[in-house]
């Protein structure tokens, strides 16, 4: 075992010491890595949430298609009505309406929204307004759902109440979002139909 005395000891200390500038650079570098990691995780989480919202939207639209077909075969003119301009017929059904009438088994406790199903010249249009209270799809036709992205069709939740707005009448989404833009003087189905 060797011992270092005198001037040799000072040289040894100089070799293992970092200057304050070097320590500061290392702290800044580590902070950059941490911030970068947080940003990547946040981006990935937000991306997954918008993917989940779009998947739910497509699932809800499928349930609304089944509801429309069911009520159409029953000739239900209370909920399947003609548009104000007479060009199409349609139906509006809320998430509660889908759940209450057993068109979906999933419960949407913290969600809000509705689907407008329209039939015009044997073509069908399915427009959806949906929020999970974090993100929002505000009135896009089913064919456009998969192309929506955050801030390009999917927006942050801003206290919108969709189902409340269609208690007396409803409208299709605008033509630029894939719908017909037609209006209907009928309420949206929310309650259970016997």
What do these coordinates show?
- The chain has helices spanning 7-16, 20-73, 95-100; strands at residues 81-82, 89-94, 112-120, 123-131, 135-141, 149-150, 153-156, 170-171, 183-184.
- By secondary structure, it is an alpha+beta fold.
- The protein has one domain (41-184).
- The strands form two sheets. The protein has a seven-stranded mixed beta sheet with strand order 1-2-3-4-5-7-6. The chain has a two-stranded antiparallel sheet with strand order 8-9.
Give the helix/strand layout:
Layout: H1 7-16, H2 20-73, E1 81-82, E2 89-94, H3 95-100, E3 112-120, E4 123-131, E5 135-141, E6 149-150, E7 153-156, E8 170-171, E9 183-184
Parallel strand pairs: 6-7
Antiparallel strand pairs: 1-2, 2-3, 3-4, 4-5, 5-7, 8-9
Q: Summed up, what is this model?
A:
By secondary structure, the protein is an alpha+beta fold. Helices cover 36% and strands 22% of the residues.
Instruction: Report the order of strands and helices.
Output: HHEEHEEEEEEE
Give the DSSP E fraction (strand runs of 2 or more residues).
15-25%
Strand order of the largest sheet: 1-2-3-4-5-7-6
- Specify the helix fraction band: 25-40%
Q: How many structural domains?
A: 1
Q: What overall form do the CA principal axes indicate?
A: elongated
**Which regions contain 5 or more consecutive residues with pLDDT less than 50?**
none
The quaternary state of the protein chains shown equals single chain
Give me the number of helical elements. Answer: 3
What does the average pLDDT come to?
Answer: 84
Largest sheet: 7 strands, mixed
Radius of gyration based on Cα positions: 29 Å
Amino- and carboxy-terminal Cα gap: 94 Å
Q: How many DSSP-defined strands?
A: 9
User: Structural class of the secondary elements?
Assistant: alpha+beta
């Amino acid at each position: 075992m060797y011992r270092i005395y005198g001037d040799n000891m000072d040289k040894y200390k100089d070799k293992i010491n970092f200057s304050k500038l070097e320590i500061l650079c290392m702290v800044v570098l580590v902070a950059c890595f941490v911030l970068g990691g947080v940003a990547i995780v946040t981006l990935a989480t937000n991306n997954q949430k918008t993917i989940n919202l779009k998947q739910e939207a497509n699932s809800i639209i499928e349930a609304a298609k089944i509801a429309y077909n069911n009520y159409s075969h029953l000739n239900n003119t209370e909920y399947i009505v003609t548009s104000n301009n007479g060009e199409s017929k349609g139906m509006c059904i809320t998430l509660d309406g889908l759940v209450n009438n057993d068109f979906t088994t999933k419960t949407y406790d913290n969600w809000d929204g509705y689907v407008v199903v329209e039939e015009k010249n044997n073509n069908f249009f399915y427009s959806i307004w949906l929020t999970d209270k974090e993100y929002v799809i505000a009135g896009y036709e089913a064919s456009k759902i998969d192309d929506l992205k955050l801030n390009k069709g999917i927006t942050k939740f801003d206290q919108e109440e969709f189902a409340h707005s269609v208690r007396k009448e409803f409208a299709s989404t605008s033509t630029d979002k894939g719908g017909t833009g037609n209006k209907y003087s009928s309420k949206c189905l929310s309650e259970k139909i016997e």
